[in-house]
């Protein structure tokens, strides 16, 4: 008995891992898994495919009126990539939940928010890969940044913020949902409606009059118009897009914290 107590007293105390170290380690695991599984390649190729699918059949009709369709189309391609990144986040979070990864992580001496932060680091990396892929095809077909350096940085940051904010929400949904695959499939419907009924593919004036107010003011149109203004250097009233970006980030942050607390109390 005495020997046991002495051994317990001399045993090295369990040390907690810092938030940065834990997040970096978990993010590295996610990135390695994405590279091995091919998701990193898909992230970079998907905007190229999306761009060509819309550009090839539509650009001649658009350019007859004197427009540059590559310049017009690029914002919605990045936004669509952000939506697909968020849907992927749902599936990844659900796969972790089904495999018992979150229970194993909760038994480790790491901050409870570290797992989701690790997943979000991969989301940001995935968005950067998508931006690279999109810019490659966009620049080859005529897209250019005509604004200042600050506007170009704002363009790129807004794309990443959009994908990150949506992914925070869908990651939380995938973590707690009984079937993350069902949630991911369900998300395909609204994203299709929002993309087709937006100013991302054609101007609002091309839609019937009764739906134009919705087309102009729905979030994808707000983001697409802001990105288009930033890429061309046109005047931009940032109020609406900032409100949407901040609102989505706050909602995603609240969802992530709520899920982390729920897991900590299990």
Short account of what is shown:
With 266 residues, the chain is mostly helical.
How does this structure look, described?
The protein is mostly helical and 266 residues long. It has one domain (19-265). It has eleven helices and no strands.
Key features of this structure:
Nod_factor_ABC_transporter; antibiotic resistance; 266 residues; mainly alpha; 0% strand
Structural class: mainly alpha
Distinct helical segment count: 11
Strand percentage lies at under 5%
Order of helices and strands: HHHHHHHHHHH
Summed up, the domain count is 1
Q: How many whole angstroms does the radius of gyration measure?
A: 22 Å
Low-confidence parts lasting 5 or more residues at pLDDT below 50?
A: 4-10
Report, as a whole number of angstroms, the end-to-end distance.
34 Å
Helix content: over 70%
Main sheet record: none
Shape: elongated
Q: What's the mean pLDDT score?
A: 86
Q: Tell me the number of strands.
A: 0
Protein name: ABC-2 type transport system permease protein
GO biological process, one term: response to antibiotic
Domain ABC-2 type transporter transmembrane: 67-260
Subcellular location: Membrane
